[in-house]
Design goal:
By secondary structure, the chain is mainly alpha-helical. It has 15 helices and no strands. The radius of gyration is 21 Å and the shape is elongated.
């Protein structure tokens, strides 16, 4: 209950009240989890300093999910420092978050923590640094395509479309099952289309291989692209794509968007 209350106060921009609640929470992992909410709204350097005092303790006997949550909390505080103009503290805290992420007990926990750091760097508009952390995510791990697709959505929101194609390359060349790779690419196509870049989305959709058992994914991707062309007023391109789809649900979706 206290954790939820603290997160709510952070979301409302009442950091001082939120931090007072965090101090009353029993258990370090619960404190750290609540502190992730500090990134919801800008806070002062003083408030970020208080949060740092709470989260900085590291028990050498702990690992696993404890370290993932701590790393996520540190990344949130780092973003808060960045927003407040405390560049040196932001850099140091991001570095600390990365160090803690590497203490996670398995690869999945580690990439979960790294994902958060990448996204916080994106939110801080530190795109080169975000990409350096992104490069440390092993695309061959379970659920990596899903995580990479989610990161791609954050780059798209920040207008960094070109980086998304690098992520698509990572997903395509991963050693995961084809189903996972295709779903990852489809998610990225949908993201690019949703942010108003149907031409770039089409370029990527055309790279989805035609598999007799997964053809629906390519059809779905092309329907999304056709809808994006229609939304941006490029009806000729939308019609050209829709007319080539197999009759059925995806073609119908495309025609509905064009109508």
């Amino acid at each position: 209950v206290l954790e939820a209350m603290a997160r709510a106060f952070f979301a409302e921009g009442q950091a001082e009240a939120a931090l007072e609640i965090v101090k009353k929470i029993d258990g370090q992992i619960d404190k750290d989890r609540a502190l992730i909410g500090i990134a919801e709204q800008p806070v002062s350097v003083a408030m970020a300093d208080q949060a740092m005092e709470i989260v900085k303790y590291v028990d050498p006997e702990q690992n696993g999910d404890v370290m993932v949550v701590k790393s996520q909390a540190l990344a949130a505080i780092a973003l808060s420092y960045d927003r407040a103009g405390a560049a040196k503290k932001a850099a140091e805290t991001f570095s600390f978050a990365y160090h803690i992420a590497n203490l996670a007990y398995n690869d999945y926990s580690r990439i979960t923590a790294l994902q958060t750091i990448v996204i916080r760097y994106i939110q801080a508009e530190e795109f080169q640094l975000s990409f350096e952390i992104l490069a440390k995510i092993n695309p061959n791990l379970p659920s990596a395509p899903e995580i990479l697709a989610y990161i791609a959505a954050n780059y798209a929101a920040a207008g960094q479309i070109d980086i998304i194609f690098t992520i698509a390359d990572l997903v395509e060349n991963s050693g995961r099952y084809q189903d996972e790779r295709l779903r990852g690419i489809f998610a990225i196509v949908s993201t690019i289309a949703r942010y108003g870049h149907p031409d770039r989305a089409l370029e990527l959709a055309n790279r989805i291989p035609v598999d007799s058992t997964k053809i629906y994914l390519k059809e779905d991707a092309l329907a999304v692209v056709a809808s994006s062309f229609a939304t941006t007023g490029q009806y000729d391109q939308a019609i050209a794509i829709a007319s080539k789809l197999e009759p059925g649900i995806y073609q119908n979706q495309a025609w509905e968007a064009i109508a």
